Amino acid sequence: MEFRRLGRSGLSISEISYGNWLTHASQVAEDQAKACVKAALEAGITTFDTADVYANTKAEEVLGRALEGQRRESLEIFTKAYWPTGPGGPNDKGLGRKHILEGINGSLKRLGTDYVDLYQAHRFDRTTPLEETMLAFADVVRQGKALYIGVSEWDADQITRGAALARELNVPFISNQPQYNAIWRVIEEQVVPASEQEGLSQIVWSPIAQGVLTGKYKPGAPLPEGSRATDQAGGASTIQRYMEEPVLQAVAKLEPLAAEAGLSLATMAVAWVLQNPNVASAIIGASRPEQVHENVKAAGVKLDADLLKKIDEALEPVVIRDPSLTRSP
Predict the structure, then answer these.
(1) Which of 5, 24, 257, 300 could form a disulfide with 33 if both were Cys (CB 3.0 to 4.6 A apart)?
(2) How far apart (Å, rounded) are the C-alpha atoms in residues 15 and 279?
(3) What is the dihedral of CA 103, 171, 158, 137, to 10 degrees?
(4) Interval 256-292: pLDDT, tens
């Protein structure tokens, strides 16, 4: 495993991190979830990402139990707040002061820790003054319940405005967590330059495009049994945008490129996002330990310029770049 600094901070994180969206307390049983976390730890992953909304708080509980007995100082634990949790009352969502301060307390209890290393705004809240949100996050840091703050899926203007307030409040604002992979590149034009200017890194999710960039979904072929595309509990809807025939045909063109490089498609896809210098870590998810083993092979891999050019040429017809697609509800 290799490590990178997160934003303009002193925090180092593993360049492959483990996330439990759509898996823990949802797609897989707890014993299998624990096996995946064990595989991540054995592979050298120290960074674990979750959120209170995953499985309506249950995913945090599973991750907390899976990490029991580990040296806390050797881990970086991240969580997020914004989406509705609990019974979904009027203050059970958003980035108002009440929800943030109550949200962090609930997350810490479920995770079984006194603090998280990074507390993130899971989306931008258009219904709450940004000043209120940033002050609440600053108070969470000053109370020692989080060491740093970050955001997820904020656009360039929102990041710039948040960073200005963070400077006024003297609070360490260091990261953005967007979707990013060789097909979905909407952050490149605006979000990445704004983040570099403000001292934020990207912690990217969906580096393998919900599994499509592994090559498991073949053009014109039936969906693999038990795959995310067949999961009606949530997985099928999240992968839908990548399941069009032109996308699957373009991904099929990557198979000989990966073989020539001596990599699996999954490893090449994760390595691809890590070639962007503003990316500090790629979040992988897993329903089986062997998926962890395959994805962590991307750590430290350098893709040469010729291979990157060939990947671009193969995917160009289906690449999505529109920066306006980085948006909050």
Answers:
(1) 24
(2) 8
(3) 10
(4) 999 999 999 999 999 999 999 999 999 998 888 999 9
Q: Determine the Cα–Cα distance for residues 287 and 280; give it in Å rounded to an integer.
A: 24
Give tens-digit pLDDT for 171-211: 999 999 999 999 999 999 999 999 999 999 999 999 999 88
Nearest to 85 by CA among 68, 65, 109: 109
In our burial notation (b when 16+ CB lie closer than 10 A, e otherwise), range 156-189 reads bebbebbbebbeebebbbbbbbbbbbbbbbbbee
Could you list the active site residues?
Answer: 54
Q: Which letter does DSSP use for residue 320 in this model? A: B
Q: What is d(CA 68, CA 140) in angstroms, rounded to the nearest whole number?
A: 24
Q: Strand, coil or helix: what is 325?
A: helix
Q: Tell me if residue 119 falls in helix, strand or coil.
A: strand
CATH code of the region 3-204+276-301: 3.20.20.100
* Cα–Cα distance for residue pair 95/83, rounded to 1 Å: 9
Residue 222 to residue 252: CA distance in whole angstroms: 15
How many CB atoms sit inside 10 A of residue 263's CB? 19
Strands 3-5 and 12-14: antiparallel
Tokens encoding 190: 């605006």
Chain mean pLDDT for the chain: 92
DSSP 8-class letter at 283: E
pLDDT digits (tens, 9 = 90+) for 131-184: 999 999 999 999 999 999 999 999 999 999 999 999 999 999 999 999 999 999
Which sequence spans correspond to the domains of the chain? Answer: 3-204+276-301
- pLDDT at residue 218, as a whole number: 85
Torsion sign across C-alpha atoms 130, 131, 136, 137: positive
Q: Say what percent of the chain tops pLDDT 90.
A: 82
Sign of CA dihedral 238, 240, 241, 245: positive
Q: What is the rounded distance in angstroms from the CA atom of residue 246 to the CA atom of residue 18?
A: 30
End-to-end CA distance of the chain: 36
Strand (E) or helix (H) holding 267: helix 265-274
